[in-house]
Amino acid sequence: GDLPTGTTVAFESPVDTSTAGDKPATVLVTYPDGSQDKVPVTVKVVENPSQADSNEPSPADQTVTVGETPSAEKSISNLGDLPTGTTVAFESPVDTSTAGDKPATVLVTYPDGSQDKVPVTVKVVETPSQADSNEPIPATPTVKVGESVDPSKSIS
């Protein structure tokens, strides 16, 4: 119920919050007239959630060419939303020696030391040849009778 105005409430001795668990304690209630009640209570001390428990890194697929080293940072789409000082690294090197979808795990390490393991996919594609990457456009060079034709003038 409501206590009289001027009533003070204090723990009889400090509660040990150094470890999790139910901690017995005694609350000393002192009324304005000087009388007191001692009330036994239980204080429930819970673990602080780790940064790994409080954050959810989002996986992002990335594409690299054969032989290229993928970036763990590019495999976490919300890295900028995670606590400052969070680091990411592939749990083991990603094999990019052949093309294909390569499963990988990004280890996200938070400033408090807690970690999340995030499964991601690295798409490894063949390096396009220069012939695949360029599209020469034919041109019509004009020359006089008997002149040699420079082949570079026939492509624009």
From TrEMBL:
Residue ranges that the Swiss-Prot or TrEMBL entry lists as coiled coil: none
Residue ranges occupied by any Rib domain in the UniProt entry: 2-46, 51-125
Composition bias, Polar residues: 1-20, 48-99
Domain of life: Bacteria
Region Disordered, residue ranges: 1-24, 48-103, 126-156
Gene3D superfamilies membership: 2.60.40.3600
InterPro entries assigned: Rib, Rib_alpha_Esp_rpt
Protein name, UniProt field: YSIRK signal domain/LPXTG anchor domain surface protein
Species assigned in the record: Streptococcus danieliae
Organism placement in taxonomy: Bacteria, Bacillati, Bacillota, Bacilli, Lactobacillales
